[in-house]
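re: that complex we talked abt at group meeting.

here r the seqs, copy pasted straight from the sheet so there may be weird spacing, ignore it
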Amino acid sequence: MADKSIEVQYQVRQNVAEIQDELRNIKKFEEEMKEKEQKIRENMCTSKQEKRVSIPIRSNVDEFSKFSEESINKMMKMSVSDEDDLAQDKRIANEYKERGSKFFKSKDYENAIKMYSSAIATYNQDSIYYSNRSQCYINLEKFSEAIDDANKAIKLDSKSQKPYYRRTIAYEKIGENINALKSCQEWMEVLPDDQLAKSTYDRIHNKIIENNKEREKEKIKWSKYPKKTNFIEKSSHLQSNKLLMKVPIQMKKSHSPIPDDIIDKLFNNNTGEHVAEIETDSKLFKSNFLQKTFNNNINKPSPVRSQSLTPKEKTKVNETNEILKASSSNMQEKITSEIPSIEDLELLKTSYKNFSLPTSGPQFYQSWKEMSDNMKFIYLKTISENSECMSIGMLIGAQLDSNLLSEIIHIIYKYFLHFKINYIHLLDELRKNSELTILALFMENDDKNKLNELLNLSSQDNVNDHTNNEIIKKIKNSFQI
Amino acid sequence: MDKVQQLVHIEKCLNYSIYDVKWIPYSAKLISIGTKTNGKGLIEIYELDSPNVKLINQISCENALKCCSFGISSPGERHLAVGDFNGKLKILDLEKPNEPLYEVQAHSEIINSLDAIGGSSTLCGAKEIVTGSRDGSVKVFDPRQKDEPVACMSASAASNDDTVKDIRDCWAVTFGDSYNNVERSVCAGYDNGDIKLFDLRKMALRWETTCKNGICSLEFDRKDIKMNKLVATTLEGGVFVYDMRTEHPTKGFSYCSEKNAGQSLGTNGVIQGSKSTVWTVKHLPQNRDIFMTGGGAGSIRVWNYKYPDKRYKEMSDGTKTGVAGHLQMIAATTISQQPIHCFDWCAERIGLAVCGSFDQTLRVLITTNLKQF
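got the structure back, here u go
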């Protein structure tokens, strides 16, 4: 008994304690909730309401499914006995129309179109279905379909206002204002008292006028652009009689090429002439190919034809010639400039990355065109000295041309003479080249002089060497000095 | 197990008949709706201000108001769906009560019961309100669609006068089984004891049964999950708990029941007096197996449902049938002399509740030790 009473007491005390706790906490709770509420209110105001995933209104989903095939069949079976087929069709089509109107009201245009289409499929002589469907298409911005439907509606009932209006609006929206106007005119012919027709007509008319005005303005804008300059084509009797100022153009063999950008500047379409490059893909025409690659370095500027040039262009030509003169004079200086010692030149060989004895003509060309004068000397020297390598004449073979020949002669003149290295055998090799006879004819005077000098010097030095003299004679013959 | 105590924290006497009480979500405020003596409707907003409630606002309506719900209100919003004695359904924004957000003449007679869903959970589907009326029809409304219900379950309109008597009043409606955007069910209870379960996706009657007495109140334990339990309370003190997980093709859902649940427990737990109606049932938001019932004798009972070991059993012909558990009464208190016909748990604080009774008194209750379940 005592235990029980103690238990009861304990229980009661506990109960009371719990209740007291609860009551105390309620106050805290109330305050917390006030704060929470405030926060939520603020969040509501600041943040945008998230758009829910649009869940369709239940009725729309079901209305359509209600009108599934089965229910249509049921409805068909339900037909009253004294109704004939046509009336039944009409009734069913009207049902569809009602459904479609409902969808239309709730802005569900897709389903409305489906309903109207079903109506048309059942009974296609009622213009209202087409007219309503065209309005649905307009709302979905499918204007061409809208126009089609409106036309059909007009065919079935030419006195109804709505199809005309819808057709006009559809044309207007796709920007065919003229067609819209025509449609409106047709409308006004059929329904002359229709105020809507008149107001629509006026509106479209004004639009067209405004559009035309804008276009006019744009045209004016265009003419403010600066005029394109045309070439002046004067007939010969109108051209001036005065002799054009002759500009002496000196052909200087420039060993360092005129930089491409200067040439581009000069010849950049000022003359209107375009030097067409002959594109040859086939490597049969080796000579051209090699010539091209070789000519990258040496650009012989062709004389600028000065017939039909305006004064501006003439000055440009003068400039060109000036530049050429300047560059050529540089060349002359270079020839007499200091030649480094032979040891230094030998060192060049080691520093030169790709130095290897050529085994074929193209290889020779490749290396040759990239080299500086010093390097060329070393190259020639190495080739001539090295017994493994083919002789220079054989190496170059049929690709020898006047440029290369003059270069070689220049190198010999400059370096071999300077270092007093024997060059006769080199010249002999050259002589044996098959092309030489022709090339010798086209040799420049400069080269011929140099060659002459070289040969004379050589014969002078080695007076007693008969073989040498023999060779020299032969060389002289072949080079036609 | 600690004793669960229930006590009345605040009592507020009002001068009008209270028909429904609800907590405003995410706040310590509550509303009570009812009818003034002049026949006009009234909505009052109170704030908890221990040891009192403080009146914040009063909203007057033309018609007497019967039922309400905050179910379609998103967090932060205060949209209240209200049904009145004239069959009109309105959605009011409590911040701007003069312009209803939605208004429709739902029924020709009084809206007996109303339920709303779709406000809080994001994935349970569209916002909808279901109303059950004395005219025997159950209608589902979507605030986006004006005038027309999105679904209507009514007795077939027969032209003969004889059959009119057969149309039963709908006394209770509730949403349930709304576990995704598409699925939803409506359960309706009628005054002859019919319980009908409608599937809104299939738009078809899914299950129906009949109890001995008229159904006063229905509730699923949770609206936004696959249906688990359904509690139905009836006249003459009956409480039925249906296990909705397993449906037998012929027998339907199995249930467990309690008799005399509406009576108050006198001294020593002896049940006295005549059988009284169980007016309302509400599940605890924090625990779906605990619910309270409000009885006609002014008593409130808190129940705990105990699941059976196995929720279904295989029959001899291969079909499954559900097995219902049993109910355990964890608290019983008598707080009034008049029936407790409306009740609402607070979702913010476990055990806090508000109830209204026919003696025009609003009571705020505290229940201790519910956390232990």
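couple things i noticed - Residues 260-338 of chain A form one domain. Chain A has four domains: 2-67, 82-215, 260-338, 342-479.
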